[in-house]
Amino acid sequence: MKKDYHFDPAKPWLFPAEYVSVLSAHQMDQPSLFISTDRSGEGLPCNCLLAADKSRLLVICGVMSLRKERKNTAKKAIVRYFVQTEYTEYSLSELSDFSLRELASSCLFTAEKDGERLALAGLNLGLHEPMLHFVDYIKELKEKGSFTPVSEEEAKEQEQYCPKCGLRYADADNKLCLNCRKKGSVVWRTASLFKEYRLRLFLVLVLLILAGALSVLAPYFSTKTLYDDVLVKSGKYYGKLLAVILMILGTRLLSMLVSALQTILTSTLAADMTCKLRRVIFSSINRLSLGFFTSRKTGGLMTQVNSDAGTIYGFFCDILPAFAVNIVQVLAVLVVMFLLNPLLCVAAVILVPLSIVAIRFIYRKLDLLHYRRFGKGRSLNSSLSDMLSGARVVKAFSGEEDEKKRFDKKSQAVANADLETSEYEATVFPAVGLLLHLGSVFVWALGGVMILLNYRYPSFISDGAVLTYGTLATFLSYVSMIYSPLFFFVNMVSMTADSMNAMGRLIEIMDAKPEVVESAKPLSPETVSGRVTFEDVGFSYTVGHPVLKNISFDLPAGKTLGIVGKTGAGKSTLANLLIRLYDPSEGRILLDGVDLKDLSFEYLRNSISIVSQDTYLFSGTVLENVRYANNNASLEEVLYACVASGAHDFIMKLPDGYDTKIGQGNADLSGGERQRLSIARAILKNPKILILDEATAAMDTRTEQIIQRSITALSKGRTTLIIAHRLSTLRDADELIVLDKKTVVERGTPQELLRQKGEYFKLYKLQLEALRTIGISEED
Predict the structure, then answer these.
(1) Pair 608, 723 in one domain
(2) Each residue's pLDDT tens digit, 397-409
(3) How many structural domains comprise the chain?
(4) Is 218 exposed, middle or buried (0-12, 13-18, 19+ CB in 10 A)?
(5) What CA–CA distance (Å, rounded) separates 38 from 61?
(6) Where do the H-state alpha helices sit in 390-399?
């Protein structure tokens, strides 16, 4: 069994120790197949276990929790264990057609039972590859009673996780693990981004070291020099009180000036470095292909742009300089103390090892408490988000009281976690303070005895080697300067770990290679006629699992092609290939006889426009959203596009017309209104090729008619590809192709396909029956 579990296609029966008890409880001590996903079939976040043998498939949902457990005679340890929340058992004989359905940002593992399609488990796109192996294995297990896993050599080639640390490879092809990469190389690689700031960084470091040196000198002047050399008759500077006071004051003022200069320089450096880091991260992300974005969570990418930049800056401008300053300060203090009185120096530092151990123990416990608090808070936020997002459902089912109880329970759990953390901090920090204060007590005690006994000791700079009041006062000032940095040095480990992770993520993004690359010498023909040709095109999101196979057709310029097929047949993938969000795995796609790979991105994307069901509106005005298709468009051109798309009338009814703020957090628009703005964008772009991807799928009949008129006007004189479920939107298409089983199975005009009575005819009859059940005739 693996401690750090990742699905191994060569040994798909392995599972972590945390799941032993739950599998045993369901009489499956050793499954033939096992995999763990991160979502239930309903899409809810959880640990979803899929375990199968020759006759059964178990679907177990639950969560991981922590508890204290005593092992042998040792002290209690924190262990993970699985808590089951839901359980379903299926007989393999009653399930069929296992498949993995790809959604926008996740996948769904499904199977058929009694003619009904069941969603068994959900998973993020990162688990897509392992799940494909699981699907293949369970199909073979059902049919033959056994299966043949891939060899260990093949599994190693396909390996997505580092066998040493268990983390996912940043670059699976090169087996690049950022966690196992030498930390020094990560730091130097990141530091190379700041070459232009080297002088300012050096000045910051010099100022910090100077400030540290002044902080060491100030106590010496105000204690040793003042007490022993000025206030004592035998002192070197006896009576020169004003001079020493001015020296002390000058040291303080110089220290303040140095600190002020350092703060100003650091502030300007922070703004410049953080801004550059954000630009580097954003530009690195922006150059990558669509596949990168579909495999990542938006929140994680936003964190990399915003949070990681600050974390990396903090490492170079806060942590490293502070480390240097503290090291210099502690070493300087120790040298001065040793030169003044070696015995008192030993007394001052004797508790340092014990203090380090105590502080490390405290922070380890605090990290665990804060981790628990974070988990409780995340659970509370998740519940609150669910309640607010699903307020309509809550009220419809009178679930307010249940939601209140659930919220109160989780809120109390957060309060308890806060209380536990606060009580621990209130208990241990005074004890640590006392421990640190004991260093001063030792110096007081030993120093007092040495003064009372007039004890002589070996010294390098003290006259007569007799402890004086000034020397004792100097030691007492320096003791705190030794113990205070201990908190920084102990906590530096966790702070550095955060920074290393941020730098690792930055390098991962910088080193990532886009799947779709522009040609070294891209072509940009002067004119575009709009002829589109697919020649034996095949495509796979993952190797060995094709989505499209042998797709061939020729669409003359100015003609309209309708694309029909069941959900998941690959219709939208065709559109993505045409605008080159992906490259075909096999074959080629031509525009006016030129391979898309030979054309420049700018030329290709200026020649093609897409109107999809999901219209994204940016936060801004209506005018800015329409102009997104052509930033140089005049107001008259925008007005023409909006009138042609049927959007002008509803825009003028908005509070501020074309200046009305829309998008996230602003005025909301209906689906039809959003679609008309999308069409206005396409008209403003004036492309030679138009792709309509389910443009009217979610519209009511009246809105669909309005949108359809706009689309008809937009399509005139343009090469048009229409992807649609509603066959009524394809009446005017010059030709249709029907996709099924990953390839083109039928081709012809709508009338020809109806006469063939094939797949298109079946879809047509199904939709016709659906319309009749709600009282709509074929003529309608």
Answers:
(1) yes
(2) 777 888 888 888 8
(3) 4
(4) middle
(5) 9
(6) 391-396
